[in-house]
TrEMBL record:
Residues annotated as catalytic: E205
Gene3D superfamilies from the UniProt entry: Spore Coat Polysaccharide Biosynthesis Protein SpsA, Chain A (3.90.550.10)
EC identifiers of the protein: 2.4.1.135
CDD domains linked to this entry: GlcAT-I (cd00218)
Listed GO biological process terms: carbohydrate metabolic process; chondroitin sulfate proteoglycan biosynthetic process
Keywords: Glycoprotein, Golgi apparatus, Manganese, Membrane, Metal-binding, Signal-anchor, Transferase, Transmembrane, Transmembrane helix
Protein name: Galactosylgalactosylxylosylprotein 3-beta-glucuronosyltransferase
Enzyme class, first EC level, given as a word: transferase
Organism of origin: Ardeotis kori
Membrane topology: Single-pass type II membrane protein
Reactions performed catalytically: 3-O-(beta-D-galactosyl-(1->3)-beta-D-galactosyl-(1->4)-beta-D-xylosyl)-L-seryl-[protein] + UDP-alpha-D-glucuronate = 3-O-(beta-D-GlcA-(1->3)-beta-D-Gal-(1->3)-beta-D-Gal-(1->4)-beta-D-Xyl)-L-seryl-[protein] + UDP + H(+)
Co-factor(s): Mn(2+)
Site entry: Interaction with galactose moiety of substrate glycoprotein: E150, N242
Length: 255
């Protein structure tokens, strides 16, 4: 087998994860941390939808045992309606932190960024695939868009279309979990952010990618986009019907 590259030579993977307070939050973050801990040179950017850092997430980050930056930014109330895109402010805060951190360092700065929502399941193989991203790489996502999977359609090593169950006319018919961007691209497009104004649900990915790349430039990963390495699993809604209205236990336990 070829000799393994020393870890120092590996580009850092930056995972931006928006998160918000809900009964399954700590369980989801625990599952994600257990995956991330097994990935070499991964830096987790955890962004709370909150006016201040919560104690729960602060404690969690302190004990997570992996390089982590803990940010927070609240979503304005007017954007919290059903049918509007979610986590826009949090993803943009992660992008701003990345740019601020790297703006004074000399290039090249090897690194790869991806958006890792806390309700997905990630194969470790996915990180090996995305690590070699030159500009923007793409791959299939399982259990999304009302189908078993969605994927970029690849011919002769190039993306030529999209296998999707929802709005195939989108410029980039891809889920947030289906692409990674090189840090260099993020730094060389300082104005590329997720837009609030005029952005519809499901169009955020397209609106963002349109600012930094073209379909022709996309790099298909995961065996020419034929392997599913990430799943949009989502946790079922928790049944708390028997939870007492007032605190009855003699101790206060964080869940």
């Amino acid at each position: 087998p070829p000799p393994r590259r020393p870890e120092a030579a590996l580009p850092t993977i930056y995972a931006i994860t928006p998160t918000y307070s809900r009964p399954v939050q700590k369980a989801e973050l625990t599952r994600l941390a257990n995956t991330f801990r097994q990935v070499a040179r991964l830096h987790w950017i955890l962004v709370e939808d909150a006016a201040a850092r919560s104690e729960l997430v602060s404690r969690f980050v302190a004990g997570a045992g992996l390089p982590c930056t803990h940010l927070h930014v609240p979503t304005p109330r007017r954007y919290k309606r059903p049918g509007l895109p979610r986590a826009t402010e949090q993803r943009n805060a992660g992008l701003a932190w990345l740019r601020q951190r790297h703006q004074h360092l000399p290039p090249p700065q090897p690194g790869v960024l991806f958006f890792a929502d806390d309700d997905n399941t990630y194969s470790l193989e996915l990180f090996q695939e995305m690590r070699t991203t030159r500009k923007v790489s793409v791959w299939p996502v399982g259990l999304v868009g009302g189908r078993r999977y969605e994927r970029p359609v690849v011919e002769n090593g190039k993306v030529v279309g999209w296998y999707t169950g929802w709005r195939a006319d989108r410029p980039f018919a891809i889920d947030m979990a289906g692409f990674a961007v090189s840090l260099q691209v993020i730094l060389s497009h300082p104005k590329a952010v997720f837009k609030r104004r005029g952005s519809q649900p499901g169009m955020q990915e397209s609106d963002f990618l349109k600012q930094i790349t073209t379909v022709e430039e996309l790099e298909p990963k995961a065996n020419n986009c034929t392997k599913v390495l990430v799943w949009h699993t989502r946790t079922e809604k928790v049944n708390l019907a028997n939870e007492p209205k007032y605190h009855l236990d003699t101790v206060n336990i964080e869940v």
